[in-house]
UniProtKB/TrEMBL annotation:
HAMAP family: PlsX (MF_00019). The lineage of its organism: Bacteria, Bacillati, Bacillota, Bacilli, Bacillales. This is Phosphate acyltransferase. It is an enzyme of class 2 (transferase). Its EC number is 2.3.1.274. GO terms for molecular function: phosphate:acyl-[acyl carrier protein] acyltransferase activity. PANTHER family: FATTY ACID/PHOSPHOLIPID SYNTHESIS PROTEIN PLSX (PTHR30100), PHOSPHATE ACYLTRANSFERASE (PTHR30100:SF1). It comes from the Bacteria.
Amino acid sequence: MKLAIDGMGGDHAPQSIIEGVFLALEDFPTIEIQLYGQQEKMVPYLKEHPRLKVIDCSEVVGGDDDPARAVRRKKDSSMAKILDAVVTNEADACLSAGNTGALMAGGLYKVGRIEGVARPALATTLPTVDGQGFLMLDLGANAEAKPEHLQQYAIMGDIYVKKVRAQQAPRVGLLNIGTEDNKGNELTKAAFTLLKETELNFEGNVEARELLNGVADVVVTDGFTGNMVLKSLEGTAGTIFSMLKEALMATTKSKFAAMLVKNDLRSLKDKMDYTEYGGAALFGLQAPVIKAHGSSNAKAIYSAIRQAHMMVEHDVCATIKDAIAKQQHVKEND
């Protein structure tokens, strides 16, 4: 299995990317990694490995580059090259922690959509209090959506959770302002009806306040709403831990209490740690394209590589292709 990695994407590139790559090479003996980037900047962190190939690139797609044009204009950038590697079958999947918009646009332009997929969706696994996590999509690939798009998101998310997380009948929920069947706007009401018609284990509407309690295994929404929920969760989690730390360090008495619950607090933080869950996958493309968090450390890059490895190993894209083809066939014969 060959994976193409953008060594120049993200806030801590190339060091964190390369450190994550070596962690993955150590744990996954079946993978070969092609690392793309500016070699002179990567050299201080590199060491020889029989399953690592380094490809020098003269350009880098930056965070301020125009997403729609970056990959097309910077043809020798590390991001463009990892996408090219997938297109030419030199790699089975690709991963970048760089410019999200550019990676999504490049994925659509170069890798291409699975036939029948109206709009690809950005999906990631988010933490829950029981440590199991849930898959949420769309997280920003499309600001607007139609009911049939949400139906396809649910089908793709269901396949991913079955294949990668080995859950036999994932509970699918539609993010809404209430749990009653008739709640929501025109989009969610129409999507609710379409989801009821599928063979999915559709649990109905779910509220944002219940997401971290594990109310569903797959949560579907439009990209605008999904992105706001994602950033709200990230911000809230970070703020709560900062406030807790400040409170526990305020007095000698609280510091002593902190020592007593230190291991419990670490366990809680690990449960809510995004670095454990990998990156965000762009579902609906011909091959796995993984977007790691821009602030990813080595652990997060390792987890994103693990995610790419599992998507390839379980042939997620081919299964999505078959499911969408089946859906189209049923629709045409109704």
